[in-house]
Task: structure prediction
Amino acid sequence: MTKLLIIATSLFLQIQMTTNTGTLEVSKNITEKFWVNGVCDMCQTRIQKAALSVKGVKMANWDIESKILTVIFNPEKCTLNDIKSKIAAVGHDNDTFKAPDDVYDQLHFCCKYERI
Ligand SMILES: [Cu+2]
Result:
């Protein structure tokens, strides 16, 4: 019984410590991957910048080869669709939203990915 109490107390202390250092905040974040159309490193910068501009997004990494964007975000602050629509708004079609034609037309010539 005493042993159990010690375990429970140390567990409680550990949780307290995590809260104080802010690590508990990190555990709220989730990782998602989705397809975003694009071609070059300019696209990569634009896509990642758009994703990171959404409140709650902690990390964004778009892979040129696979065209897969990996995002880490806090689902209490934004939704996956918030991120996807923001990326479409800067000119990049993705698996859920299409970029407006006029925004796509304004993209740098090397960024004119093939639209599906
Ligand atoms: Cu580009």
